[in-house]
């Protein structure tokens, strides 16, 4: 355990980097995921096809392959950036497919009677969606969306395995293989770092879930 | 809810407008796609040199490449198969003992489940790879991957099994007890067979997750599909082409599996008054 106590600042910094990746990727994936969900319910066929293709590709492709693609494919398009940027974008794009499905299933969970009632009192498409459907959909979107985000935090370790320098997983690998520290305490420290994030997040999510639950 | 309840059926003018907008967005998407192709072509990504080994049987690298990738895919499927099998066995045991055992044991199981669920699977795999030899358990590298994946997935399967048993009507166990069956008999002869049926779609979805996660074998140099692809790329120097191919294979396999899951779900719920399929929030829908 000595290795953890001696190097606690490294682990803390790793935890910070992990949180940073997750913050950026989380914001980006919410934007992209919402946009793709919009595409999937849009009345325009090409947009719907695009949304479906996007979800099919990113849901069925391992994150590792997505990240490899980011590392090799994007530079081939003539865009250059650091691996931190590529890794974060890759993580966000992969997660966006799941965000999209969470939002879409939330919209689908609102009973059709709500929309019919809204229309029958004279609300238009925008009003129906904004005032009636979305406020109710949010309640059923939050629980799955929270699970998606927790999964994303764990998946950020894979981006770390690719050599985004300095995140929690990368710190652990460096400590154990490059500096020859004892493997078991190091990995326990890494696991503990993720648990510090994921377990409270899970508890919080459970609480929010109970708060927003609808009696049906 | 279908989207059509959100707005009135469009009239002729709205339909015309929608058609123009469709064509326009279609063109924009095509232009974007074209730009990607153009940039790739400019970068020399469509040359024979880069694609030949993959698609031309007369190319000298064709046979070795396909053999290499084929073996890699075989290893991927093998590791995924073992992982799902072990996860199923251990997950079922966890789920069953959790229902019946003493309180301290139940708490221990819940603790283990939370710990394993909260840790990234790549950390678990690396742990199995590095820590087990230290503990004196020297296994071939495939088993490190299988152990890591099993540790991660068995707790999810346990939840699926529990949901499967919970989804059965109470009358099933009551009737079984009423005809004089013991607790074990009720579980193994009545509840579990029905629960497994109800769980089938969720299990197939979980297989997709396991298949995707075997690609993490590259972090411990297990010769699975992605890792073999990397080896090939080192020699052939065509990362984009090979990763496209690998992604395509994964997408085809996993898409087929998810369709199969939907199909079994529909078949199972057909001809029943209530659809009793187990549907906990599975990892397949969260991207775990």
What does this structure look like?
The complex is a heterodimer of chains A (216) and B (288). Chain A is mainly α and 216 residues long. Chain A is built from nine helices and no strands. Chain A has helices at residues 2-6, 8-41, 45-60, 63-76, 83-109, 112-120, 125-161, 168-178, 183-212. The longest helix of chain A has 37 residues, at 125-161. Chain A is flat. The termini of chain A are far apart. Chain B contains ten helices and no strands. In chain B, helix 2 crosses helix 3 and helix 3 runs antiparallel to helix 4 (103-118). The longest helix of chain B is centred in the first third of the chain and has 39 residues, at 62-100. Chain B is flat, with a radius of gyration of 25 Å. Chains A and B meet through helix 3, helix 4, helix 5, helix 6 and helix 7 of A and helix 1, helix 4, helix 5, helix 8 and helix 10 of B.
- Average pLDDT confidence of chain A is 84
Shape of chain B: flat
Q: Could you spell the SSE succession of chain B in H and E letters?
A: HHHHHHHHHH
How helical, in percent, are the residues of chain A?
over 70%
Can I get a quick summary?
The complex is a heterodimer of chains A (216) and B (288). Chain A has helices spanning 2-6, 8-41, 45-60, 63-76, 83-109, 112-120, 125-161, 168-178, 183-212.
List the defining traits of the structure above:
heterodimer, A: 216 residues, mainly alpha, 9 helices, 85% helix, flat, B: 288 residues, MetI-like fold, 10 helices, 0% strand
List the helices and strands and how they pair.
The complex is a heterodimer of chains A (216) and B (288).
Chain A: H1 2-6, H2 8-41, H3 45-60, H4 63-76, H5 83-109, H6 112-120, H7 125-161, H8 168-178, H9 183-212
Chain B: H1 12-42, H2 48-55, H3 62-100, H4 103-118, H5 121-134, H6 141-166, H7 170-178, H8 183-214, H9 225-236, H10 239-269
Helix pairs in contact in B: 2-3, 3-4, 3-6, 3-8, 3-9, 4-6, 5-6, 6-8, 7-8, 8-10, 9-10
